[in-house]
Amino acid sequence: LMIASSSLRSGLTFPQAMETISRDMYPPISEEFGRAVNEINMGYSLDSALDNIYDRVKSEDFKIAAVAISVQRQTGGNLSDILTTISDTIKERAQLKREVKSATATGRMSGLIVGLMPIAITVVLNMATPGYLDPLFTKTGRIALAIGVGLEIMGLLVIKKITTIKY
Question: Mind spelling out the 3-state secondary structure of the chain?
Fold first, then answer.
């Protein structure tokens, strides 16, 4: 987006900016924009070419940019500024995503420990004292084991719900 914005500021059209991206960037983005430039040269509209890129890459960030470009073409305005704003927004979203991941790391680690601790203790007890866990495989023991597994799964789901933040 920054290359496109810079190209537009230097006086190029958006299709020319797309061609610049296809030349100057690394794959896979250069290949996608190169394919879109070819589509435009074959008669596709710019909107169709951008939609085809979205269909191939399935990036919500790209969809935002494609919609903004389409709206700008219909209503007018400074596309360079729009692309710069979208680029800054995408960078901020990525930064927020990293911060959220960092902030929830303790909770995710707790969930991992809560999930693996019973298994680890079972393995250690079985290795250290064979036969110690045999009562768990009686009728009453199986009921207790089922309740324990159910509560364990419930705890994992609660921890996952707490540490999963939608943005």
Answer: CHHHHHHHHCCCCHHHHHHHHHHHCCCCHHHHHHHHHHHHHCCCCHHHHHHHHHHHHCCHHHHHHHHHHHHHHHHCCCHHHHHHHHHHHHHHHHHHHHHHHHHCHHHHHHHHHHHHHHHHHHHHHHHHCCCCCHHHHCHHHHHHHHHHHHHHHHHHHHHHHHHCCCC
pTM of the full predicted structure? 0.68
Q: In this structure, are residues 35 and 26 in contact, taking their beta carbons and an 8 Å threshold?
A: no
What's the pLDDT tens digit per position in 123-152? 999 999 998 888 888 999 999 999 999 999
